[in-house]
Amino acid sequence: METGLYVGYVPGFPGAHTQGTSLDELQQNLQEVVSMLLEDGEPVLDAQFVGTQQLAIA
Question: What Gene3D superfamilies has UniProt attached to this entry (predicted)?
Fold first, then answer.
């Protein structure tokens, strides 16, 4: 089943996942989720930063 939604998560950050109808909405939703989780206390991160990559979607 295809929903047309973008899905995102923050690796190693339990509970940091969301969806949006556009990449901009997805990014805003992820920022909101991370902010809410940080307000609830110190998160336990199980990941190590490796790098980022930008993709162009045609």
Answer: 3.30.160.250
